[in-house]
Design the sequence.
């Protein structure tokens, strides 16, 4: 099947970061869903040094625009992550997006996402040039991680006050009297205006701010500080984090979602068992492995709660694998398939690092 190359002369682009070949399946499925939802704008991937040439070739074979960038990190003495959250150690580089001044407007997106509906309308949102737009962070702490802030509880979550269907076109307003958690954004999707002046301002904060050592979620905590009172909350459907399907079931409707965000474990790290296996030994083995992984990461969840959550997550992960199966039909005969296949786990129990 010929590859659909989507070039755009627009000054608008969707931008993504890739730092390691193990995330290649996520990028390519994300790109496929970008094409399938008929976006009018370019799909750009920022590559850090050290990404293998075979990964670059696979991206370019799909018509993806590649931008080479340098790493971006605070001084080692200023910021440390616990073992479970070391997956965030390279995400500072996402902030290089502000240097892409060849574009007037950019939507920065994570690559552990799946587009279910066209979201080009977001580019038309009116925000001041020195502002950004993003969805709130969900501060319910569904997985009960003991190292998360103590005020991360449902009562303080900005999604808790929302109701359906008004949640589809509005978010909880942030005021000076709002709980601290209402001021936190999720960095998985950010609408912004690239600017070298802003890039320098952000990097200066990264290198000099005393707040850096307190950040648990690197790039998004920095953005929340730099753009305090200068970010516009977006409806959750533009960045629907998978755990919200459980934590905020009153507002979640699968049919409403534009962009599904697979936070934490990535969908290409395991293939969920079919419903026919939900009561079998394999299912219990998968749940036991997942629970052990969560415990190692500091979760206080017990078996019954984890079983319910895992079953909900699996339903969403099936969507990703359906898109991957279609991608395989398009690419399996190509010279690039091996590098994709080696980073995918088709088994129900993950053999990859949960990061």
Sequence:
């Amino acid at each position: 099947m010929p590859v659909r190359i989507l070039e755009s002369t627009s000054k608008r682009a969707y931008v993504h970061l890739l730092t390691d070949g193990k995330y290649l399946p996520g990028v390519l499925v994300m790109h496929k869903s970008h094409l399938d939802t008929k976006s009018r704008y370019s799909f750009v991937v920022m590559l850090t040094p050290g990404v293998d040439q075979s990964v670059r070739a696979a991206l370019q074979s799909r018509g993806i625009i590649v931008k080479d960038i340098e790493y971006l990190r605070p001084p080692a003495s200023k910021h440390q992550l616990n073992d479970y959250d070391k997956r965030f150690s390279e995400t500072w580089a996402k902030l290089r997006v502000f240097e892409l001044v060849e574009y007037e407007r950019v939507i920065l997106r994570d690559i552990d996402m799946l587009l279910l509906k066209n979201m080009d309308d977001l580019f038309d949102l009116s925000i001041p040039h020195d502002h950004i737009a993003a969805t709130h962070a969900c501060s319910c702490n569904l997985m009960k991680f003991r190292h998360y802030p103590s005020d991360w509880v449902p009562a303080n979550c900005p999604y808790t006050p929302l109701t359906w269907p008004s949640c589809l076109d509005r978010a909880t307003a942030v005021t000076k009297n709002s709980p601290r958690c209402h001021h936190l954004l999720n960095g998985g999707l950010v609408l912004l205006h690239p600017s070298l002046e802003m890039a320098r301002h952000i990097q200066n904060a990264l290198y000099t701010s005393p707040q850096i050592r307190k950040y648990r979620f690197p790039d998004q905590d920095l953005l929340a500080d730099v753009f305090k009172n200068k970010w516009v909350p977006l409806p959750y459907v533009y960045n629907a984090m998978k755990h919200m399907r459980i934590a905020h079931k009153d507002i979640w409707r699968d049919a409403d979602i534009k962009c599904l965000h697979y936070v934490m474990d990535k969908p290409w790290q395991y293939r969920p068992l079919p419903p026919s296996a939900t009561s079998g030994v394999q299912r219990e083995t998968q749940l036991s492995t997942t629970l052990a992984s969560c415990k190692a990461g500091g979760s206080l969840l017990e078996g019954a709660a984890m079983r319910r959550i895992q079953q909900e997550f699996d339903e969403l992960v099936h969507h990703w694998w359906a898109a991957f199966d279609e991608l395989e039909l398009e690419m399996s005969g190509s010279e690039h398939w091996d590098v994709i296949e080696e980073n995918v786990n088709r088994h129900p129990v993950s053999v990859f690092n949960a990061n």
About this structure: Residues 1-7, 351-355 have pLDDT under 50 and may be disordered. The chain has eight helices and ten strands. Strands lie at 12-18, 42-47, 65-68, 105-109, 113-115, 132-136, 185-192, 231-233, 240-241, 259-261.
